[in-house]
Specification:
The structure is a homodimer. By secondary structure, chain A is mainly α. Chain A has one domain (2-287): Farnesyl Diphosphate Synthase. The first copy, chain A, contains 16 helices and 2 strands. The first copy, chain A, has a two-stranded antiparallel ribbon. In chain A, helix 8 (149-159) packs across helix 9 (166-176). The longest helix of chain A has 28 residues, at 196-223. Chain A is globular, with a radius of gyration of 18 Å. Chains A and B meet through helix 2, helix 6, helix 7, helix 8 and helix 9 of A and helix 2, helix 6, helix 7, helix 8 and helix 9 of B. Chains A, B: One of its GO terms (molecular function) is (2E,6E)-farnesyl diphosphate synthase activity. Chains A, B: Belongs to the FPP/GGPP synthase family. Chains A, B: It catalyses: isopentenyl diphosphate + (2E)-geranyl diphosphate = (2E,6E)-farnesyl diphosphate + diphosphate. Chains A, B: Its cofactor is Mg(2+).
């Protein structure tokens, strides 16, 4: 698949990032590196890089920002998995960060990854001396914050054991999962100097893709294969959480995934550019088994 | 005291920041606002503002950055107080964030404040269109990260119940407390366009002040008044932690505080500017009872 061309670059960048970090605080680097490198589809950095490549060729120049986005994603997983939150022991078939390092270090590893992502982005802004870079990084930072991912997580926590409205469910996921997926795409377009119509179309694409991604996640939580997912299924049911399946039923969810995917592909085509890689990712997310 | 002239401005800025935030995620704003507004000496934003005012008059223009620095400080306190970390119930005489809101929300409130600080800094960089702003914000961001405050916290956690070398103890505090105090001062100088000699002197001042601050904290932990401190004394002894008192003894610590304070005042004078407010803060930190 063309879309995976850049996955090796991202994986290597992430693998090497904390290498040769030593000293008194070695543990924090080990624990951050552990969660960053236990696998993962790298969807967000791939979306970032392929969106950027619609407008510019120099992908290596922006690998740092792609890596920063994956760090933000990883920090959120580490904190979500904590006993005080979702209390999950397994992630990608491996012990979660707090199972391996303990709760205190897992909290700090999450903090450290979020902070490191910001360090990387500020450093990029210094070196590029570009106002577009500042705008792109600001967009990413906002998507992760209390009006973005954290808003989604707080609604998720407060909704446990309760029936919530479909409107609130959609709101939750648009923030928890959607915000960073959308930001990966939109920030790349901003950074690459896309015009406002292009940014708007890509933002709509990102929003629909984020929703399709979450519905598919809920579907896999019911009918997925634990060994492929690397985590337990039926986690929402066990925690008595509302999700798209409890609201719409399995069949309707699968239909909606297909419909959203089609709309995503239409939006990409309307850009009039070579969007093959993004189309591949979009379809891959629909047909994935993990 | 001249140095407190700007405290009201900071307090008001912090009080108003999350006001009128509502919606599904109201709890996260309430909990962030709670910890941000249960008092505090506002040392770091004051150091930032008074350093800036050595070079520029328009303090209102940079209140946002001062507030962002206090948010980073507050996030670190919320996470440090968690049961998995220092497990403290009281902070400034009030219930800590997790006692009031529960562990999950306290973790997210910390995450949210760190993230909001970054949002504010990126927004400031967009609006000011200034490379000095990007450099100043980058300096603040790095001071909070895994090579800064988080390094100090990880060494602190790993040292619990162990005797550690004086070198490691100094390293720990230079990161845990020193990094953000130094950054508040240095970032203000960078932002205000100070020259490299001035920045160097102020950086040395910040490093010595941070060390004096921490030694004084250790002294107060032994001989302080709980009602004035708003937290329990002898916390290090009860947690079997090394500190400056266990290493040097009380008398030597008090001597070192005075010596460092004198060196700080000398450094300020060597700038040849009206440093009265910074001198006041420096002396206040030496003589404080909380």
């Amino acid at each position: 698949m063309k879309a995976l061309k850049y996955k090796d670059s991202i994986d290597k960048w992430l693998e090497n990032y904390f290498i040769s970090k030593d000293g008194y605080e070695k543990t924090i680097y080990d624990s951050m590196s552990y969660s960053l490198n236990i696998g993962g589809k790298r969807i967000r950095p791939l979306l970032f890089l392929y969106t950027y490549s619609l407008f510019k060729d120099e992908i290596d120049d922006v690998l740092d920002i792609a890596g920063a986005i994956e760090m933000i994603h990883t920090y959120s997983l580490i904190h979500d998995d904590l006993p005080a939150m979702d209390d999950d022991d397994l992630r990608r078939g491996m012990p979660t960060n707090h199972i391996k390092y303990g709760d205190a270090i897992a909290i700090l590893a999450g903090d450290g990854l979020l902070n490191e992502a910001m360090n990387i982005m500020f450093q990029y802004c210094i070196e590029s001396e570009s106002q577009l870079a500042v705008k792109a990084c600001s967009y990413i930072s906002k998507s992760a914050g209390a009006a973005g991912m954290i808003a989604g997580q707080i609604v998720d926590i407060e909704s446990e054991g309760k029936k919530i409205s479909i409107e609130k469910l959609k709101y939750m996921h648009s923030k928890k999962t959607g915000a960073l997926i959308n930001a990966a795409i939109v920030s790349a377009a901003i950074l690459a100097g896309a015009d406002s119509t292009e940014i708007e179309k890509l933002s709509e694409y990102g929003t629909k893709l984020g929703l399709a991604f979450q519905i598919k996640d809920d579907v896999l939580d019911v009918i997925g294969d634990e060994s492929k997912l690397g985590k337990k299924t039926l986690s929402d049911e066990n925690k008595n959480k509302s999700n798209f399946i409890t609201e719409y039923g399995l069949e309707e969810c699968e239909k909606q995934c297909i419909k959203l995917t089609e709309e995503c592909l239409e939006l990409l085509k309307s850009l009039g550019k070579d969007t093959e890689a993004l189309e591949d990712i979009t379809k891959y997310l629909l047909y994935r088994e993990s």
